[in-house]
Amino acid sequence: MRFIGRQHELAVIRQKLASNRSESLLVYGRRRVGKSELVKEALKDVADDSIVIHYVCRKSSFAQNMSGLSQAAAKAFDEPFIKFEGIDQLLRYVYGKATRQKVVLFIDEYPFLRGDNEAIDSEFQIAIDEWQHESCLKLILCGSYMDTMQKLVDSSAPLFGRFTEIMKLKPFDYYDAAQFFPARTNEEKMLLYSVFGGIPFYLMQLDDNLSPVENIQRLLIPEGAMLENEIRLQLTAELSKEENANYVLENIARGVGRYSDIAREFSGSSGKLSHTLGKLEGMGLIAKDSPINASSNKRQHRYIICDNLLDFYYTFLFRETTARSAMSSEAFFLKKVEEDLNNSYLPRKFEQVAAEYLVRQNRAGNIEPPFSAIGRYVYNDKARRKNGEFDVVTQDEKGYISYECKYRKEPLGLKVVHEEEWQAKELGLNFYGFGFFSRSGFTNDVDAEAYKLIDLDDMYK
């Protein structure tokens, strides 16, 4: 399969591999996000006279991993096997070889080698400090265990300041995810991304010969389905209490996002809840969402699920084990998923995709003036004694622009435009501009010169 996306990251790694100096790279991110494939794709362009040592660490003892790493080094240099007892001995050997030619040492799944022994980090730090100016070794440490890998860049960590490139890979956004199924209609692309998210491995499981709904019915709905198992592996790899994570994710999926509300029925201590939230946030599965105009107001903070696959699973499937085992996948989808998917879930995801579109355009220099922040905008309607929010608002040097998102089958008309403006005026909000996202385009009476108008086709151009 062709390599998809990550062109910026690929260019950065290729540049580091081509330089005439020692480099130390850290590439990390959650399971299945494509770390190893990215590095291996970059290694395809390594010069013919370079030596590449690639070793994937196993979930086994340090001694067994050192034996495997020793064998990989011997094979790369076409030399008799030398069993290195410690990582310091192997690094001295490899760095010494790199004084005469370029050498790449790619250690994948580094946390399995390191374990809980931080002294191993120190051995790498000592070797880098001693040899970086005398050799041309390209050291690449790659790993999935987020907690371990993030600790490597802490200011108190031995390897702090030693990496010449730190790359934390994130899931694809809606646009890059669509490259996995380019022949689909834009509505199908939107649906598939809303359900399966942006993890490359998940997207590779989709069958082009099946409809989006049939893929959902095959990969997610059956009890013990492949991607359900992936979700469990993702959680158990980093968390000791899966049930705590299930409680948190289920509550967030049904709209319970404030810490106090999540804590209300949590069976454990507040310390355990904070630990679980912190772990899930560190893994990139949830995020603390703050309003663009009230970021310091903790009462307005809420947690959201960042991963669409998890969001779909905990919204529709997690509590339906009995129904999923008793019903066919087709019947379950029709009875338990279809209506809410179309009426509430997809409209919510359309707002997410609209924000991702704006961020892409902003980074590409296509928005003037460029905005410095994007998020929801909260307000207090004192006259009607209620609070509310605008879901997608940007802030730039001139002020705020509000974007209304409508995921409807019919085109968006002037009535909706006027309602949005009127509401903002009645509330006394200082939006200096308005934009509109529409699934099905706009009626002819909406002035494209007066408003920023974006339909689904625009978002996938």
Kindly describe this structure.
It holds the Pfam family ATPase_2. It comes from Selenomonas ruminantium. Residues 3-206 form the ATPase domain. This protein is of the alpha/beta class and 461 residues long. The protein has three domains: 7-168, Rossmann fold (3-Layer(aba) Sandwich); 187-337, Arc Repressor Mutant, subunit A; 367-459, Trna Endonuclease, Chain: A, domain 1 (3-Layer(aba) Sandwich), CATH 3.40.1350. 46% of the residues lie in helices and 17% in strands. The chain is built from 20 helices and twelve strands. The chain has helices spanning 7-18, 35-43, 62-77, 87-97, 110-114, 119-131, 146-151, 174-177, 186-196, 200-204, 212-219, 226-236, 242-253, 259-263, 270-282, 308-317, 321-326, 329-363, 414-427, 456-459, and strands spanning 23-28, 51-56, 103-108, 137-143, 165-168, 286-289, 302-305, 373-381, 386-396, 399-406, 431-438, 452-455. The protein has a five-stranded parallel β-sheet with strand order 2-3-4-1-5. Strand 9 (386-396) and strand 10 (399-406) form a beta hairpin. Helix 1 (7-18) packs across helix 2. The radius of gyration is 25 Å and the shape is globular. The mean pLDDT is 94.
**End-to-end gap:** 23 Å
Q: Can you count the helices? A: 20
Spans where pLDDT lies below 50 across 5 or more residues: none
Largest sheet: 5 strands, parallel
**How many domains, in number, for the residues?**
3
Q: What global shape is seen?
A: globular
| CATH architectural label of the largest domain | 3-Layer(aba) Sandwich
Share in helix: 40-55%
- Spatial extent as radius of gyration: 25 Å
Strand element count: 12
**Strands ordered across the widest β-sheet:** 2-3-4-1-5
Mean pLDDT across every amino acid position:
94
Assign the CATH topology of the largest domain: Rossmann fold
Q: Which class of the largest domain in CATH terms?
A: Alpha Beta
Q: Determine the structural class based on helices, strands and strand pairing.
A: alpha/beta
The CATH superfamily of the largest domain is: P-loop containing nucleotide triphosphate hydrolases
